[in-house]
DNA sequence: CTACAACAATTGTATATACAAATGTATATT
DNA sequence: AATATACATTTGTATATACAATTGTTGTAG
């Protein structure tokens, strides 16, 4: 992936902004791919992310703020995101008995099953997206990314 | 930046998805920073991007499809994006005389001046965002990113 | 010359996101 | 106990984005 070629500029971009643009371009294409992979399942990336967080709870429900802080892309409105999952019957929502301000959200059996179908497609996508890189390269990449 | 800590999960994530998430997290925080830096100038990242593309034309106008293909994040609606810049008098739009289907967009003096103010702020932001990395690390990072 | 396809941009519309304000509940202060 | 403050979520609203359909223009085949 050549940055200058993709954004079609002749002049070469200085190292630091170039790096930021480079990462942005890759993340854009990764997001596009992931969105496309999830499309047949009729869930957005965010919705998928929430389902995985809920599964990670192993039966224990999570409240909205917990979900929110665990999401890769924080967003201001987790309520409406959960509404969508609720409409698909992938999650359940009930008010927390100990603290009625809070709400307890848990994944349903239907949600777990849907997620299992998505997992296979996602796994494949992740491997395809990183197919050109060796484990060593990826480890090195992670090390550099850690410095940000 | 530790991935697991940020998305608050105990279990360690496999290398390949972890790398993708890692990049996503960094790009998210970079975007946030850039958005914040541009906020006082009342332009979005996309609008700023278009202004820079137009300046790069050195007086020569660009049509919508040209702008669109040069943007870092392609978007489906460049017309409305240009509308916003038009309202701020940062750009001019006129129909192309040779091909009346096309439209010629060029940056105004006011646009150039506004952009110059933004440049300084952006340069600083870019340096801050990459301050923890050496040139060698950034070069290595770009090399690895090229493999995607 | 007319009909048709291709092109470039615009418009319509549904959905997503960001941000502020509002609602309802719990806790702390006097 | 009454009031105020903080908390967790929801709602309102403006803006952004994705995608499809439409408009106006140009090129081309018969």
Name the features.
homodimer; 148 residues; mainly alpha; Arc Repressor Mutant, subunit A; two-stranded antiparallel ribbon; 7 helices; DNA-binding; WH_DNA-bd_sf (chains A, B); MarR/SlyA-like (chains A, B); HTH_MarR-typ (chains A, B); MarR family transcriptional regulator (chains A, B); DNA-binding transcription factor activity (chains A, B)
Secondary-structure-based class of chain A equals: mainly alpha
User: Given this structure, which CATH class of chain A is correct?
Assistant: Mainly Alpha
How many distinct domains of chain A?
Answer: 1
Give the name of the CATH architecture of chain A.
Answer: Orthogonal Bundle
* CATH topology-level fold name of chain A: Arc Repressor Mutant, subunit A
Query: How do the strands of the widest beta sheet of chain A line up side by side?
Result: 1-2
Let me know the CATH homologous superfamily of chain A.
Winged helix-like DNA-binding domain superfamily/Winged helix DNA-binding domain
GO molecular function, one term (chains A, B): DNA-binding transcription factor activity
Organism (chains A, B): Croceivirga radicis
Domain HTH marR-type (chains A, B): 16-148
Pfam families (chains A, B): MarR
Short description:
Chains A, B: One of its GO terms (molecular function) is DNA-binding transcription factor activity. 2 copies of one chain form a homodimer. Chain A is mostly helical and 148 residues long.
